[in-house]
Amino acid sequence: xxxxxxxxxxxxxxxxxxxxxxxxxxxxxxxxxxxxxxxxxxxxxxxxxxxxxxxxxxxxxxxxxxxxxxxxxxxxxxxxxxxxxxxxxxxxxxxxxxxxxxxxxxxxxxxxxxxxxxxxxxxxxxxxxxxxxxxxxxxxxxxxxxxxxxxxxxxxxxxx
Length: 160
What we know:
It is a single chain. The protein is 16% helix and 28% strand. It has two helices and eight strands; from the N terminus they run βαββββαβββ. By secondary structure, the protein is of the alpha/beta class. The chain has a four-stranded mixed sheet with strand order 1-4-3-2, with helices on one face. The chain is globular and about 50 Å long.
């Protein structure tokens, strides 16, 4: 039987996304989150870019897809980015609106009714669902579906 991992010995490194248009996705993630290209390859029918926040690798974008994100297929449900305050959530929302990205709800929503945490939910150019949240952004906001958490967790789990 394989050894069981112990708590505290794993963290999320980076996320790799399949995209349909590398240039469009680089521009979107740069404008939305301030991410910059760390490395880019366009050779031998391979196109990809690694994006950094200036400290570490955050996203890798792989131009190898067609169509749009399909939530009905196995894989990514949504990608969430935590920021330090509700003000940062609002700043991101302003950038997202300026980019014309589809918002799934009109502005900030709580993760569940009464939760302190909350954020905004929107889509990237390929329809990948994204979230920007803070631990204090849900205060004074309702969840879009009442008792069901907005990030799609069950009532047993908490989003934060």
